[in-house]
Design a protein that fits this description.
- The protein has nine helices and no strands.
- By secondary structure, it is an all-alpha fold.
- Helix 1 packs across helix 2, helix 1 crosses helix 6 and helix 4 runs parallel beside helix 7.
- The longest helix has 22 residues, at about 115-135.
- The chain is elongated, with a radius of gyration of 19 Å.
Length: about 180
């Protein structure tokens, strides 16, 4: 089966995002999507059989790299690029609203179900994880580095500042983190 057109996907996922962030996961229905977009309910059912399928695609879109690039194999350069990807997402994508809606949706469901919020956060920081793992393989960082812990230590304060305090993260902050990890030389 082929996927929906880009225009249909943008319309449906945009409406689903609006519903998710205003009324919650349970309010996402094909009828409501049809009312907001005019996209046939059968089309919605065919491509997104459940609200969770829509949320999965919203998260996938929100964590897609905005700048497709190949890392150059240098810790300083690659880490700066990865951190700027996160700052782009903070500045240009609705991180606060989506994360709050995902946490609320996860809170209301059985914990055994796949949680959306942790997957979203993992997707947001994935570029930094990749860079640090690659740098350990190249010997630029210790091979026994706990990458997940280091990412939490580096990016966790940004989540606090951006999500909880509403602050923006700038290039000076990116440079400070790069210097912290890769050294100022």
């Amino acid at each position: 089966m082929t996927g929906p057109s880009d225009a249909t996907q943008d319309a449906v996922l945009g409406a689903a995002f609006e519903i998710l962030t205003t009324d919650g996961l349970a309010a996402i229905t094909p009828s409501r999507i049809f009312q907001m977009t005019g996209v046939a309910r059968t089309t919605v059912y065919r491509h997104w059989p459940s609200p969770d399928d829509m949320v999965r695609d919203i998260v996938r879109h929100a964590t897609a790299r905005h700048d497709r690039h190949d890392y150059v194999g240098d810790l300083r350069t690659d880490l700066a690029t990865a951190l700027r990807t996160i700052t782009f997402r903070f500045a240009n994508r609705p991180v606060r609203a989506l994360l709050a809606a995902l946490i609320d949706a996860d809170r209301r469901r059985d914990p055994a179900e796949a949680p959306a919020a942790p997957g979203y956060v993992s997707g947001l920081v994935e570029p930094v994880v990749e860079v640090l793992r690659d740098a350990t393989l190249r010997g630029e960082l210790p091979t026994d580095l706990d990458v997940d812990r280091r990412v939490s230590e580096l990016v966790g304060p940004w989540f606090h500042r951006h999500v909880l305090l509403g602050e923006e993260i700038d290039d000076d902050e990116v440079d400070r983190i790069v210097d912290l990890v890769a050294g100022s030389g």
